[in-house]
Putative membrane protein (Prunus yedoensis var. nudiflora), 219 residues
Amino acid sequence: MEKREDNGDVKVVGGVGSNSKFPLSFWEVAVASTVLLGFVVGLLVVYLTMPASDYSFLKLPRSLQELQILRVHLEDYTSDYTAQVLFGYCMVYIFMQTFMIPGRPIVFSLWPDKLQFFQNQVAKRRDGLLNYMLFLRLTPTLPNTFINLASPIVDVPYHIFFLATIIGLIPAAYVTVRAGLALGELRSLGDLYDFNSIATLFFIGVVSVTPTLVSKSKS
């Protein structure tokens, strides 16, 4: 719930009781713990039923050579057991997405000041909200995780959130995908940043921020 003050700012109220020390009730914690336990058991079953393999290569790579070795092993394993790997990947992804959304009470408890700031900015920029959200996605003004969690709470329309996310994350997605495709041919990490890559990222960045710059110049 929100309350508009005389100076135009919007104050977020409600959501978390002022006298409660913990933002969730006993039954909410019990249900969440049950779901978590069910997912953990399911992931354990998936792990135990996966075909045996040499897991010695599964470690955090500390060099480009170790990263390429890990890629080769994972590619071979995926080719041999495509269905099992796909099912396991989907289970892990659903698990991560389920428990990365803490809910309104926990968001209020974790980031009250940032949530207040974000709420005020969204209220002030309602007419040019797409440009503002696009600006946030392209710059480190606010962490992406916070934007993902707080946007529905501060009433950012879904279509604006969707468009800003799709366009704003293109540069990071481009670098990630290109790195994955070229991993087998890389000789150094510097090969990721050749002239073509930098020019493409620059072009994407210019196109993405142009609406924001035009809007600011008009205002």
Notes: The first helix runs from residue 26 to 49.
